[in-house]
Structure formats: C-alpha cells, structure tokens
Amino acid sequence: MPTALITGATAGLGAAFARRLAADGFSLVLVARDESRLSEAADRLKQKYGVAVEVLPADLATDRGLEDVEARLRDGVDFLVNNAGFGHPGHFLEVPVEDETRMLKVHCEAVLRLTLAVLPGMRSRGRGAVINVASVAAFFHRGTYSASKAWVVNFSESTAAEVDHPKIRIMALCPGFVRTEFHQRASMDVSGIPDFLWLKADDVVNEAMRDLALGKVVSIPDLRYKAIVAVGRLIPSRLTQRISTMLGRE
C-alpha cells in the first residue's frame, strides 16, 4: 500500500487531502503541531476508510520539527503534500520580523527540505508525487505571504524540470479563497470577499489531483481564478497592487 505524508493535516486543505488520499487507498502520515487534533483526525480516517494512519507531531518552524519529518520521509513515502502554512493580518511593515522569518521557515525552508528528503527514495523507486500548496497570491504582490508563495511556485517548476521523470510528478497548487480555518487563525477580516470567490476544500483537492494526473506543474483550481491570474498579467501595475492587497489575505 502506498504512503502519503501531509503537513498541516488536521484542517482545511490538509484534511481534505487526507480524506481524498485515504479514499484512494493510501496509508497516511499526518503532520501538525497539535497532537490531540492529529489523533482525533487519525481515528476518524481509520474508521471511515480502513487505512493505516500514523501521527507525527511537529512544528515546521523549528529545526527539530523539520528533522523529525525529514527522517520519516527518508523511511519511504510515495506522496508528499507540503500544505502547512499561515498568514499575517497586518501589512509587511507592521509585522514583527520574527513572525516574518517564521513564515519563511514554514513556507519556503520546510518545502525545500521536505522535498529534498523525499525525492531520493522516489527516484530510486521510479515513482512518486509532491504537491506544494502555494496560492493564487503568488501571481500578485503583497508582502512576505505572496512572495513566499511565488517562491513555492518557482521552486516546484524548477524541481520538476530538474527531476524530469515521467512517473515522478511535482506540482504547485495555487488556490484562491478556500473555506478553511486559515483566515480565522490569522485574525483576518474577510467579510468583504464576495461569496462567488470562495471555494470548497474538497473541490480544490479533487481538481488538484486531476491536474497532477494530467502532468501539470502548476494548478490553479477553478475557472474564476484562472481568469483572475490571466487578467492580472495584462492590467496596469497599480491595479495589480490593489488586487494583491485583497488576495494577500487568502
């Protein structure tokens, strides 16, 4: 039975990936900071899907947490979802530098290190997949969040080109606004976001899995967001900055 490891696995897109991959017959390794929530999630998945589920409590903003997950990946994982992440409610100049560097640790260093840890085993077996969760904000400009997600997209494209193996898929997933705990945890006011821009986590994951099977390196779920990104490349920079201010809260 193949094994999938998912970071940020107890809520939102991470939980949706866990459900989908369990339904597809994967054993799971769930990674998050909250051990009690991990255990509860594992119990639900075992009961519903009858798959083996490991829990690995780890804070990816720390070297110890990263080392623990790297070690598990080197033991053998067929599918990695780098989903852990968070946002800040304030603008760049208002956020303490310690919080900004913590974001870079989770969004960039963790994605780099965990991908590097899992790829040697995938290459030796001749198969595997990595999905790095970025954001549609990667195509716009608003502080460290969008910059870090732009790095995830570039890193995923570069790594896919370097690995260049037909049975090892590496993809950046770039969703827009998704109904998750993300905004509440970041104390973000999203009351002004129109209802039609919100996506469901399970729909995002299902489209991501389709795009991965098609061999896409960058996935932008939903036609609405595909259009927003396409238009964003054509409009004046000042208007792009306005859109970025909104999307940076994703």
Helix and strand sequence: EHEHEHEHEHEEHEHEHH
| SS element count, helices | 9
Beginning-to-end CA distance, first to last residue: 35 Å
Strand order of the largest sheet: 3-2-1-4-5-6-9
Supply the key terms.
9 strands; Rossmann fold; about 250 residues; 9 helices; seven-stranded parallel β-sheet; alpha/beta; two-stranded parallel ribbon; about 15% strand
Summarize the structure in words:
There is one protein chain. With 250 residues, this protein is α/β, with parallel strands linked by helices. It has one domain (3-247): Rossmann fold (3-Layer(aba) Sandwich), CATH 3.40.50.720. Helices cover 51% and strands 15% of the residues. It is built from 9 helices and 9 strands. It has helices at residues 12-23, 35-49, 63-74, 97-125, 143-163, 182-185, 201-213, 223-232, 237-247, and strands at 3-7, 27-32, 53-57, 79-82, 128-133, 168-173, 177-178, 198-199, 218-219. Strands 3-2-1-4-5-6-9 form a 7-stranded parallel beta sheet, with helices on both faces. A two-stranded parallel sheet has the order 7-8. Strand 5, helix 5 and strand 6 (168-173) form a beta-alpha-beta unit. Helix 1 (12-23) packs across helix 7 and helix 4 packs parallel to helix 5. The longest helix has 29 residues, at 97-125. The protein is globular, with a radius of gyration of 17 Å. The model has no long low-confidence stretch (mean pLDDT 89).
